[in-house]
Amino acid sequence: MILKGFLRWVVLTLLFTIISTHIYAYHIVGGEIYYNYLGNNNYFVTMKLYRDCAAAGAAPYDNPAYLGIFDINGNLKQSVTIAFPGSTRVPSSFSNACFQPPTNICVEEAIYTTTVNLPPITGGYVLSYQRCCRNATILNIINPTTIGTTYTAQIPDSTVADTNSSPHFNHFPPIFLCNDVPFTFDHSAADPDGDSLVYSLSKPYQGLSSFSPGPGIPTPPPYSFVPFSIGYSGTYPMSSSPAMSINSKTGLITATPNTIGQWVVGVSVKEYRHGVLLSENKRDFQFNVINCPAVPVSSIPSQQVFCAGYTVNFQNNSVNSTTYHWDFGDSGTANDTSNVVSPSWTYSGPGTYTVILIASPGQLCADTGYSTFQVYPKIIPDFVPPDPQCIFGNNFDFAAGGSYLGNNTTAFFWNFSSKATPASSNTKNPTGIVYHAVGTFSVTLTISENGCDSSHTGFVTVDTLPVISISGNNSICLGSKANLLAEGGKSYLWNTGSTNSLISVSPVINTSYTVQVSNEIGCSDSSSYTVIVNALPTVVISKSQTICAGSSTSLSASGGSGYEWIPAAELYAASTANPTASPTVTTTYTVIVSNGTCSNDASNIVSVYPFVNTVCCNTTISTGQSVTLVASPNTGTKTYSWVPNINLNCNVCPNPIATPTITTAYYVLINDDKGCSETDSVIIKVLNCLNVLVPNVFTPNKDNVNDIFYIKLQGDCVESFTLKIFDRWGLLMFESSDPANGWDGKYKGKEMEAGVFFYILDAKLINGTSLNKKGNVTLMR
Fold first, then answer.
1. pLDDT above 60 for 75
2. What strand order describes the sheet that includes 587-594?
């Protein structure tokens, strides 16, 4: 694509060469191209060119000058001719009676301007101007008489920046620099959009050659750089100690040149928006380093800040002087003078003022410097962004405000973005601005007057309809509730009348619910949600019934595909349609029947006839005693049958009298009028409490035969027991309250000698009989 553009350039150049005069001259001093966006794809392009007006054979300015406009691939899109606007001589920075700078150095400035319409294209545009050639006396470029220059500007792709105005440098550097004298110069630029600027020293571009110096249509990009002489480069362009440098943030150039001659210096300013590079403005210029005698030199730095108010802080770059006199040129007062080095002055009103600085006033070599200052109040554009609107039917009005003079030079420019119709306006208070996209858009108001401009950016919001989301139960069973949650807005209105985001409904048939949702700025939309209502299964369950305690019965249910009975503890197969129930008490059984989607339930009661029978009571008696057997309950009609029919006065009575001679278990079978029966039993234990055995001799000789003295009673008959043994002097040898605990013939652990001992037994038997015995027992060894 670049080759295609180049071929087109060759053809156009050859045609131009046939009809033009060949010009071979040395005259280029510097230049730059920049542009301002006017709206509706219109750009106001400014091209500043500087030429040597003293060199012999210097070519005049091009009339017309040719501006080439290329796409990113080097294809020529437009060739624009710009008529010569005239030129002005750049004044020297020296004006001293004792020293005159060289008269063979002269620089002129011509400012070409034009307006072009450039619709957005992929990659944007490259604007170019080319010429040849440079002065032969330049020291830092190889063969400068054959080297031309190219000045370019880039208009970025609209996807990178929908609108853009490029930065432009504020001042042209001074023509002369004094050798071995420190030099500072503000090479800052202004950007109408307020983009971030980064400065650097850079290589200038080459241009046309001495074989085809121009004027003519520029060659397509990309462009090569000038060939620096050995020891020099774009970042070290001239002999200086310390080396020339530029502040990347402020554009301030510092240097102390140490070699007389002419030097080409290139400066780049790159503009960034949100960290994205938009364009680069490269300007080159020629420094003339000369020897300066030690005479006073008056130097007023060029005005750097414009439209900043009526107070000006003046800087003084004069050298070789210690006394100064300033005249600020304010005709409204006679006191507009000062003798301080760097004074301040507040002007009485806006206007253009000629400032005079005399270095070493009253002396022979006093030097007088002049500078023109434009004094205008600061332009502070402002506007109140309109309230957000919805995408449908939006219509915005704007009104310019802020602080500005409002004279006949005042102009307004609005940039609403490419998403609006119109995208821009030159009226003070534009109305009826319509946006065709949703989002927050920057709106920039630029106010220009008196050669200054300032911008203010605000934002308008165009909102879409709310994106509604409804979630919840879309299928429920009859009789259940559906919880529906609407999201996506600030306020809600359901067709149920609810204004809550969350509603709970209980439809009986399939029902559609509609909600209207509004966002923060009132944009609203509606959405519907249908709830399906599923029928419940029809449950058929077995009838309630009554059973005897201890019996089982079958339950049954139908109407679905799944069954679950509760309580399940007394059921067999509780998850089937026909479980078996074995309740011990009257129980209500509930079955939950499912049809795969919904469930229903039903209950029945299994009544348990409580056969409460208590046979009372297990008893212990002595031989010959009687006891009454008691069978309960005593309600309803019952029959009784006792077995064995031994020692009973009646075996079919509820309460027979038993007089067993031995321990006996009596069983009773009880039948009631409900058809239920029950069996229970009672045990009557019979004890013989008349057998008491008291030995009269015992032999504690450790042969395990008769070693212990016991009084043997039938153990089950003893209710209480006390045994005491005394020696013949009445000393208590042994005492026990347990018939199983006998005397081993020891006293306090010592074995007693053989002899006769006296015992006393006090016992009470369970049949109420008291037993008291006394006697002797002989201990033998």
1. yes
2. 545-548, 599-609, 587-594, 562-566
